[in-house]
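Before the break, one more example. Copy the sequence into your notebook; we will annotate it together after we see the structure.
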Amino acid sequence: MNGQSRNDLAAGADPLTFSAMAPRDLTAVVDLERRAFSHPWSSEVFQRELRLAFSKIVLARWQRVVVGYVCRWLTDDALEIQNVAVHPDWRRRSIGRRLVAIALDDGRAAGVRRALLEVRRYNQPAIALYRSFGFREIGVRRRYYADGEDALLMELDLDGGAGS
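Here is what the structure looks like once it is written out:
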């Protein structure tokens, strides 16, 4: 991205668009995933998510370039945020916040009462983001991730959660 584009976003212009992922977006999303995480999801994981009726991946785009996404599951009793990613060059511009808000709005619109997620125990930026929405820690999943790191299990009451 050029500097002017980032400056426009920081200055308050809103050229971001949000839309559901389609199969044609797979290459761009997998590329973003590899840049965002040391243990990225595979192409096969995204293909599976696209087939699941209860799964939805919402993309954030700057013009036509995918700069972030949220993957969420919506079941009868909960919204589950599976993953949130923002391209490293686009972090700290509220893209992740907007993606989480979109997922939470989906849950509220569907009438579910709570949202759940797991987050790496030492991912302080993500934990701070989730806490700002009112998520609270309700447990630890020991050695949850492939590299052995623990996950914090967090929950938000969608009937009375903050940050919306």
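The longest strand covers residues 65-74. Strands lie at 16-20, 55-62, 65-74, 79-86, 114-120, 136-141, 151-157. Try to locate both features in your own notes.
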